[in-house]
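Project standup — Tuesday

K.O.: blocked on the structure for the chain from last sprint. Re-posting the sequence here as requested.
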Amino acid sequence: MWALDHSEYPNVGRGIWWALQTITTVGYGDVTPTHVSGRIVAAFVMLWAIAFVAVLVAAITSTFISSVQQRQSAKDAAEEQSQERRVEARFDELDKRLDRLEQLLTARNDG
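H.V.: unblocked you, prediction finished:
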């Protein structure tokens, strides 16, 4: 910014201050720090606020993802249980058929 508007930005530090305000979406306000120490504190607060929002969003997102994973796990477990019941029912049916065949073979051999 110093190269484009030398009168408004007399040094690189002021250009960096403008960039930091713009990036953090704080923008220009009626009251801004004029001393370097105030700008350093303000820059720290702006960056800390962005980090705080990022951590907060990450925590909320993590909670949603965990909830979806738990529901999916419960759904998968229920589906697996249902498949196991079908397989067991099929085995029970086969066992009954084999018992009938065994009875028929035994009756045929005895008779």
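K.O.: great, moving the ticket to review. The CA atoms of residues 97 and 103 lie 10 Å apart. The mean pLDDT is 85.
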